[in-house]
Each structure stands twice: as C-alpha cells, then as structure tokens.
Amino acid sequence: MSEKIKEEVKKLLIDKKIKGFLGLRETNGHVMPHLFTNPEELEFISIGDWKRSGKARYPLNQILIQLTMAYPEDTFAVLVRGCDERGLIELFKWKQLEEDKIIPIGIGCPDELAKACECEKPFPDCQIDGPKAEKVEGKRVHQIEAMGLEERLKFWLNEFNRCIKCFGCRNICPMCFCNECSLEEELLVEKGDIPPDNPTFHLVRAMHMVGRCIDCGLCEEACPGEIPLRTLYKKITEIVEKEFGYKTGYNLEEKSPLNIIEVK
Amino acid sequence: MEFKTILTTCPYCGCGCGLLLEVLNGRVIGTLPSKTSPVNEGKLCVKGWTVHEFIHNPNRLTKPLIKKGGELKETSWDEALDFSVKKLIEIKERYGSDSIGVLTSAKCTNEENYLLQKFTRAVLGTNNVDHCARL
Q1: I need a surface site. Which of A34, A53, A77, A155 has the fewest CB within 10 A?
Q2: Do A37 and B1 make contact, defined as CB atoms within 8 angstroms?
Q3: Cα separation of A143 and B17, whole Å?
Q4: What is the pLDDT averaged over residues A47-58?
Q5: Contact at 8 Å (CB) between A214 and A249?
Q6: Residue of B24, B25, B43 with shortest CB distance to A168
C-alpha cells in the first residue's frame, strides 16, 4: 500500500527538497518512528499496521516539533493520516510548526480503522496513497449520554479511579506542547496520591483539550488503566463544535474557540 | 543529521516493558512506549516514560569510586575489581562465607541476575543473596 508514498518521498529526497521524511520503519517485526534521509532505506517503510490496521501508530507530529526546533531552517516531510493532518493544522495555528517547512505525505485509513476510531474524516486532504474510507458516525459518546446524570458521574469516577498517574495520555499527545503543565501544578492537582485527584486531574486535562484534540486516540491506546479518554475528549470536541461552531483541525483560517470573544 | 528510535527494554523493574528511545544525533531526547512489544502493548508507567532523563545527566557515575583517606576517588575498573577481589577473599577467609551478602537488582537482566546468584553461591559459598525490590 505504500508504493506511491515511497515514490513521492524518493523524489523529494533526490531533489533535495527535504532534509528527511519522518515516517515509520519496520525492523525485526517492530514498527517504530524513523527519519528517512536516504532513498535506499525506504524499503523498510511501514504504515503502522501490526496485527490490526493502524495498530502501531506513533505521535509523529510531536517528534516533528522536536526536529524542527533542532533544525529550524530545514524542510521535513511527514507521514499523515486524517487525524495527523488535523493536528498539523492546529499546530500551525499555535505556531508550533511552520506551514512552509512541512510537506505532509497523506495516507487514507481503511474502513476497519475508521470504524474502530469512529473517525469523522479518516483521510487527509493531502492523500496520495491508501483507501478512502467513509466517515463513521460516533456511538460511544451517545452510549454514555444515555445514562442518567448520577449514573454517568459514577461511571466516570469509577473509570478515573484506575489512573496510575503515568502521564501517558499527556506524554503521547501530539497536541500537548506546553512547557509547563497544569497537571503538575500543585494548586490544581495535589501531589502524592494515586489515583490523582478524582475527577479533577482528568477534567483539567479534558479542559485543555478544547480546540486542540484532533481525535487521534493515542491517549486511550497509551492508558494502562484503559480509561476511555477518547470518548471524554470526543465529547469536548462535540461541545466546542456545537457551542462555538469550531471544528478542531479543519480550517487553518478559522479562529480558535479560545480566541473568540462574544457576548451571547 | 540522524534521527532514529531504538527499541530497548525498560531498566527499572522486572516487567521488561518495551520502549523506544528517540535519538537525535546520538543524544537521547525522549521515550515512547513500544506499540509492538507484547509485554506492555504501547503502555508505560511514569518511570518508563521518563527513562531518557537520566541518560545524559552530569551527576551520573561513569567511573568506579574507591574511598581513599576518607574520600571517594575515581579509579580504573582494574584497580576497583582487584581491590574488591582482595577484600572479598580476606573477609571470606577471616569471617566465613556467610559473613558476606549480595544484593542484585531488578534493573539487571535475568542473565545478569543468574550470574550473580551463581557467583554468590558457587564462588563466595553463601545463600545470602537478595534483590533491590525487597530493600
């Protein structure tokens, strides 16, 4: 499935249009992020499929931020799915990446993955390879909303109770780029307790996902407590869209909801 | 310029979670959980997530130390090992094997721990062997 990507990247590397292509590489059955700088390495390219499609995805945009900080003058290409492209749009807005220094190489997700993610747009606009799956209507948020208020609160407290405060949700998040993190601020979240302040810890993080969460689902995959974080942030994204008419990661020109001042 | 990720095993506890060290031009700049590791399946605890932080720490010991004149001084591995061997033989001869105890570590590999218990039992001649997880 990655033939067109290989061709495109090879051309960019040979023409010296990019310093490197940040993608995934498969070595000894393991999929891992890698910066391809030599066209010969491209035979080891992977699209993150392992056991299931897209099972071995990594926060490439997060690594990209680190690379561009070390090499601010250079241009990089990066492998993007629909969610990663939404991430790029927000990261451009938040000045974490420069639009003219990044060349996104798009791959579409198969139906299987789109369904597993309940993805609203399982393909990037810059798609050059892979299938083009249909948008999937979300069910998981509605399932939880079907509960009564009291039952819902009990459900979430019970879920958050399994948190071991590994910070995995924050660490793997390609949209978490703050130098100082509220989750480590003692005035907000008391130190020394496991599980951390329930539900404060998770609600603080959820609030900070406003206008940022692009629904990649890496947080939920990284959670040792298997807390349904993605469902929580899907709800946040839904509120942002409904109340502010803002679709996170869809339009570079659109103002972030945190920059809209409007008296209703 | 070179950026790659290196698959390795978390050095902290005995679980052996697979993790990826993000390496930029020979310096470790971050850690990611390995999604393809059957042990942790893309998850890590807070210690695993911060594994890269101690690697380039200037406070890290890089040479063995021997106390001379009440002060710890850097020395060569040859001198440190010779000194340890001499002292262990002396102690064993004077006070007996059971006067020696050995602590191994959950941060070592199974093979290293095996070797150390073998050394303790077969060479030092004592069953006084334990590991840091019970400290």
Answers
A1: A155
A2: yes
A3: 34
A4: 92
A5: yes
A6: B43
